């Protein structure tokens, strides 16, 4: 039994598609059996919500009078990149605000940065543009300072080169002093552990071999209709996988883009990591078309079937030793405590299961209402790609 | 006996007055101070819990009302903004008394029980989303 994208889209358009969330599909297949369920179910919705540092946006300002080729720009004092065409800028989620003391007084607070600018824009708030230029014959203006909001822009396009990490490290700190990381505050002597994945709801854990999620796949990016435009940076599919094919460490990634003007503020949140820096948390939903029973079976993955690797962020992670302290399933991690090296360690998450669940349901209703059609990828994500290290060569100067 | 959490703001004119002493001596209240601060501008903030019988507590509140002091019933010293919270749970392990906890294992939503909060402020550093804040 197989279905095509066109058949599924026809059912969606006529309001007849059967759509289940990645959570619902587990019990459904248990009850109806794989073959029957594969006939009945058309789409499974998956989602994730968590910090995705590799996020940013291109903004196009209308031209001022006289015109200006902005060469340096700050939005709410956060620097934007200007090495592109006139009045376009790119602002990245991890950019710090001008004059942020960073970690000069460790641990820094990092209260506001690129991620917060993006959040403010999506929320419709007024922000300030300050731009400088050297002045040219065709663009004579040299300085600009003005308030604007997202509606004043011609385009506000989110472009995220590395989102939706397929599984991720679990962070712990075996040293005797507290450390500050992108996985949050890790207390000394393994007094806590942090994971960051939506587990059984996560898109790439429900499609571990990228059978349906590829370049060109339609996604729900913070409420806007977006697409996967490339494999994500650091995409590394050649990793150890469990018997079910699910990677046991960080693996595939997706590069996503969508129109910020259509996004919902609830799913675009600036984040401040004490002692580490700023970022942006995003909500992403991806529909998986049930083209055949095998694809369906992959979507029935449960927290207890997905393993994640625990890494010591005080030494092994920064020193790149490759050492893994242990592996736990998401079911164990979600229970709130695990036992590692003879010690009971409390576990919490950085990604939000509750928001991921909400996105699965929102996407489900958009598909059921016939508003969200699926697209067949034009290109598959690489399946045999490893990850290089950087070798330091050349004479030191 | 009942216990009430209160948060007081004293303008400069009132910071020198021994208000807590009187709560204990004249109104028989058991006082448990969580946090106190006098700013360089000499404004005072005080977050505390008082235990006593209803009558004494009512009288004590009337007494507080005679000063130029702003009284907030309940835990206003630490505020959890439900709308900013994304329910990640990063704060949970850092909150010693379990004021921030995961209530529903199914949806993994986090909730704040203000009666339990001891105002240690650990959540403020631990929350990446600025959902927790201190009034002073
Ligand atoms: S201030 Fe301390 S006790 Fe209160 S909620 Fe935050 S972490 Fe918990
Ligand atoms: S860390 Fe912040 S956002 Fe996350 S659950 Fe706690 S209060 Fe909510």
From TrEMBL, chain A:
Entries under InterPro entries matching the protein: HcyBio (IPR002708)
Domain of life, per lineage: Bacteria
Span of domain Homocysteine biosynthesis enzyme sulfur-incorporation: 17-374
A Pfam short name: HcyBio
Name the UniProt record assigns to this protein: Homocysteine biosynthesis enzyme sulfur-incorporation domain-containing protein
From TrEMBL, chain B:
PROSITE patterns attached to this UniProt entry: 4FE4S_FER_1, 4FE4S_FER_2
The keyword Iron-sulfur appears for this protein: yes
Molecular function terms from GO: 4 iron, 4 sulfur cluster binding; metal ion binding
Entry protein name: 4Fe-4S binding protein
InterPro entries with a match to the protein in the record: 4Fe4S_Fe-S-bd (IPR017896), 4Fe4S_Fe_S_CS (IPR017900), ACT-like_dom_sf (IPR045865), Fe-S_Ferredoxin (IPR050572), NIL_domain (IPR018449)
Record keywords: 4Fe-4S, Electron transport, Iron, Iron-sulfur, Metal-binding, Repeat, Transport
Domain of life, per lineage: Bacteria
Keyword Nucleus applies: no
Matches recorded under SMART domains: NIL
4Fe-4S ferredoxin-type domain ranges (all copies): 76-105, 108-136
One Pfam assignment: Fer4_7
Protein's organism: Desulfobulbus oligotrophicus
């Amino acid at each position: 039994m197989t279905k095509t994208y066109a058949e599924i889209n026809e059912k969606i358009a006529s309001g007849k598609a059967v759509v289940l969330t990645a959570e619902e599909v587990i019990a459904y297949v248990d009850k109806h059996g794989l073959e029957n369920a594969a006939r009945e179910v058309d789409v499974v919705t998956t989602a994730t919500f968590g910090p995705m540092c590799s996020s940013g946006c291109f903004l196009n300002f209308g031209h001022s009078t006289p015109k200006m080729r902005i060469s340096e720009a700050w939005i709410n004092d956060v620097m934007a990149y200007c090495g592109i065409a006139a009045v376009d800028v790119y602002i990245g989620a991890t950019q710090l605000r001008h004059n942020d003391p960073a970690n000069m007084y460790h641990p820094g607070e990092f209260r506001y940065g690129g991620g917060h600018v993006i959040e403010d824009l999506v929320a419709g708030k007024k922000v300030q543009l300050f731009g400088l230029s050297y002045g040219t014959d065709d663009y004579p203006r040299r300085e600009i300072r003005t308030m604007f909001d997202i509606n004043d822009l011609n385009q506000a396009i989110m472009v995220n080169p590395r989102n939706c990490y397929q599984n991720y490290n679990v962070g712990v700190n075996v040293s005797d002093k507290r450390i500050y990381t992108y996985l949050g505050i890790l207390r000394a002597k393994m007094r806590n552990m942090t994971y960051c994945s939506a587990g059984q709801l996560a898109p790439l854990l429900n499609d571990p071999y990228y059978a349906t999620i590829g370049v060109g796949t339609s996604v729900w990016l913070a409420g806007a209709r977006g697409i996967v435009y490339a494999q994500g940076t650091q995409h590394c599919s050649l990793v150890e996988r469990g018997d079910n094919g699910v990677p046991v460490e960080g693996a595939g990634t997706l590069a996503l883009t969508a129109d910020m003007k259509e996004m919902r503020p609830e799913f675009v949140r600036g984040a401040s990591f004490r002692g580490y820096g700023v970022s942006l948390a995003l909500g992403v939903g991806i529909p998986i078309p049930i083209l055949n029973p095998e694809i369906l079976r992959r979507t029935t993955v449960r927290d207890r079937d997905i393993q994640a690797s625990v890494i010591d962020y005080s030494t092994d992670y920064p020193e790149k030793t490759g050492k893994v302290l242990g592996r736990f399933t998401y079911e164990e991690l979600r229970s709130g405590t695990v036992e590692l090296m003879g010690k009971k360690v409390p576990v919490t998450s950085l990604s939000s299961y509750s928001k991921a669940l909400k996105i699965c349901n929102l996407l489900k209703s958009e598909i059921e209402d016939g508003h969200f059609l699926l697209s067949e990828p034009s290109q598959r994500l690489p399946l045999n790609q490893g990850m290089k290290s950087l070798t330091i060569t050349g004479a030191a100067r | 006996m009942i216990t009430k959490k209160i948060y007081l703001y004293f303008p400069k004119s009132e910071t020198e007055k021994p208000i807590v002493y009187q709560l204990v001596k004249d109104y028989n209240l058991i006082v448990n101070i969580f946090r106190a601060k006098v700013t360089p501008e000499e404004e005072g903030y005080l977050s505390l819990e008082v235990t006593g019988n209803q009558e004494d507590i009512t009288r004590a509140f009337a007494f507080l009302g005679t000063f130029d002091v702003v009284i907030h019933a309940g835990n206003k010293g630490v505020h959890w903004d439900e709308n900013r919270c994304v329910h990640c749970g990063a704060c949970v392990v850092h909150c010693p008394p379990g004021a921030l906890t995961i209530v529903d294992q199914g949806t993994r939503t986090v909730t704040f029980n203000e009666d339990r909060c001891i105002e240690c402020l650990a959540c403020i550093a631990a929350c990446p989303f600025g959902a927790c804040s201190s009034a002073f």
